[in-house]
Amino acid sequence: MAGFRNGRGRENRPPQGQPQQAPYGYDAAPPPHARQQWPQQGQGRPPYGQQGAPQAGQRPYDEPEYFGDPYAQQHAVTANNPGHTQVFSVDDPYGPATDHHAGAAPVPTGPRLPWKALLSGIVLRPADTFLRTRDHAVWGPALIVTFLYGLLAIFGFDRAREEAINATLSTAIPYVLMTALGFVVGGLILGAVTHTLARQLGGDGSWQPTVGLSMLIMSITDAPRLVFALFLGGENGLVQVIGWLTWLAAGALFTVMVSRSHDLPWPKALGASAIQLVALLSLIKLGTL
């Protein structure tokens, strides 16, 4: 009865199923059926196969195999902590990622083509030549070839040839030089228009190679018509047929050049060259200059 009077009795006992608190200074006994506490980070464990027999009072903890190795889970948790960096790699079945823009054409390598290889390559190897020169300016060959073409182009038109022949030498020379300069300026303007249209259609090429190559294409493709026009006149039927054929060849070369220089599909490349082709057809190929 004294225990009930002092406040100690049935109500002060711990609830059923909970461990009784040990007196101060004594370690509490482990609760029955307690879950095994795995060692924390930094606590070692004897290697597998070197674990000794359990000592007196020590209770071995055997787990079924389907629980897995708890130390493997601990390694996975501490793998990326300082001092425990885990090295791994992921294989990409599609290969390394690369930037893709405007068709992702390969960037040409190698030195600039000499002028002989450039001029012959435009006729014999246009695709490879335009690809190799897409990042190289060709101002020297373009200006010289276009200027020489302009000096002879005036004699390919009947009216302009008569005016140049009938004029005095002091008058004919400036007239021919101005015509040659006009061809150079016209080639620069038409090439710039082609480059601008190509960039608006999604091209990524530089303006210097585009303008220079367009001037070379204009001059080289019209050379066969000009040779016959010097002797037969610009209004001759054969000269007209040659003019149409060389104009189609110029259209094909312009398309390949813009496609390689700006990395565009051929329909867009042809569309970018449309204004220049129409100007060449009406002013030069048909002899209406």
UniProtKB/TrEMBL annotation:
<feature type="domain" description="Yip1">
    <location>
        <begin position="121"/>
        <end position="282"/>
    </location>
</feature>
<dbReference type="Pfam" id="PF04893">
    <property type="entry name" value="Yip1"/>
</dbReference>
<feature type="compositionally biased region" description="Low complexity">
    <location>
        <begin position="34"/>
        <end position="59"/>
    </location>
</feature>
<dbReference type="InterPro" id="IPR006977">
    <property type="entry name" value="Yip1_dom"/>
</dbReference>
<keyword id="KW-0812">Transmembrane</keyword>
<feature type="compositionally biased region" description="Low complexity">
    <location>
        <begin position="14"/>
        <end position="26"/>
    </location>
</feature>
<keyword id="KW-0472">Membrane</keyword>
<feature type="transmembrane region" description="Helical">
    <location>
        <begin position="137"/>
        <end position="155"/>
    </location>
</feature>
<feature type="transmembrane region" description="Helical">
    <location>
        <begin position="175"/>
        <end position="198"/>
    </location>
</feature>
<protein>
    <submittedName>
        <fullName>YIP1 family protein</fullName>
    </submittedName>
</protein>
<feature type="region of interest" description="Disordered">
    <location>
        <begin position="1"/>
        <end position="68"/>
    </location>
</feature>
<keyword id="KW-1133">Transmembrane helix</keyword>
